[in-house]
Amino acid sequence: MTLQQLKYIVKVAEKGSINEAAKELFISQPSLSNAIKELEKELQFAIFIRNNRGVVLSNKGAEFLGYAQQVLTQAELLETKYITGPNTKHRFCASSQHYLFVANAFVELVKEYDSGEYDFTLNETTTYEVIEDVKTMYSEIGIIYLSNYNEAVIRKMLSENNLIFNELFCAKPHVFLSKDHPLAKKSIIDLEDLEDYPRISFNQGQHNSFYFSEEILSSIPVKKSIHVSDRAAVVNFIIGLKAYTFSSGIFPKYLHGEDIISVPINYDEKIQIGIIMHKDVVLSEIGKKFYDTLFNDVEKFNSL
After folding, report:
1. DSSP 189
2. Which of 60, 158, 249, 287 has the smallest number of Cβ neighbours within 10 A?
3. Are 96 and 126 in contact (CB under 8 A)?
């Protein structure tokens, strides 16, 4: 197994096609195919499953890809430190449920590297995909939440995939509302107060279990519901449709301006928002900075 073979695997997985990957790697398609077959023979399992449209990763291949990406990242760090110097392009990827404070921390991180070259990714996605991204080491860090309802299931899943959860903060349930919403002046809201208004939640795709929901109290049936995949749409719907979404209530004024407010819910529940990481991975320098930025931002915003 060589670093070159690992680079080939990563590129083929990215393109979904051996032919397209060969073009970008400036090698012949047969040479690339042979290199992959040799590695698969050495590993004694198929990394890719071939089909009429190209290739897709096998289950073992997806796991192998995560480790390959981690090895290549570490190799690049060694080259940067001891061979090529500090001008190498910086790379980092994190995955998260849809949290504005995470996007804000990501902005702060990117600014630190603005003077050089970088390739950074913030993958706002479903709960299942956040866990998968960290499991396969596509992402160094993931951000999800636990509640009384989902904690046992999610922690079991994390343990089975060799992942750990570090709490960022714990909060009580709130709702985000428009400042002009009929319930906006209430100091605390009962669930019955929300019955006639649309509830917004993030679509979890094919893994649409209540345990994977991004919103607390998602198992409670409602008359009206709107499912979205775009975080920006949430604000528009809250303002335009007198809709609401459940939240932790953390720093809405700082991130939403004055149009959106947060009101506590009269319900005995908790929201633990935290960082998940792979037990076998040592965070890169960039990963450590993002980790620290998240914790520092939580402390800063909680003091406002």
Report:
1. B
2. 60
3. no
